[in-house]
Write a structure and sequence with these properties.
The protein is mainly alpha-helical and about 70 residues long. The protein has one domain. It has two helices and no strands. It is elongated, with a radius of gyration of 16 Å. It starts with 9 loop residues before the first helix and ends with a helix.
């Protein structure tokens, strides 16, 4: 890993990372576009936790897409 090769390289790695990116993009899109959780976000802690979770899970598709572009 010190040489920048990554755990999986080549076409298999690219496909695996691209699949992971799509996998994490689908629930993120559903949470933003489909589900209305406003009635459940009754205080600041619930809202902060909801937004922190979306930020954390929102970073995953971008990280995996970057790895997919880098694998090879």
């Amino acid at each position: 890993m010190a040489d920048g090769s990554g755990a999986v390289s080549g076409g298999v790695g690219r496909g695996l990372y691209a699949g992971f990116a799509v996998f994490w993009l689908i629930p993120l899109a559903a949470s933003v576009a489909v589900f209305d959780v406003r009635p459940y976000l009754t205080n600041g802690w619930w809202r902060a936790g909801y937004h922190a979770t979306n930020l954390a899970f929102g970073a995953l598709p971008f990280a995996y897409a970057w790895l997919a572009l880098r694998a090879g």
